[in-house]
Amino acid sequence: MRYFYGIIDLMKICAWFVLFTAIFYLGMTWMDQHLEKTHRYDEPGSGAVKVDQTQTGKNPGAYEREEDYVLSRFFEFLRDGE
Length: 82
Prior knowledge:
This protein is mainly alpha-helical. The chain contains two helices and no strands.
């Protein structure tokens, strides 16, 4: 009889898991449908400004060694979480 109650308890846990998983799934699909309607990338109100500048020659802030540059880029990669 003790095993019977153990099986019933296990079935209750599985039922709660399925119920909460279904609620979570429905919430995620609702959120996806809701956000799909919004336009995320609006055009800027004024003219865009180019901020990229290509420099020739050695930059004043350039790294002396290639390893320093690679290490700096690696830490930037980790910091940004990409």
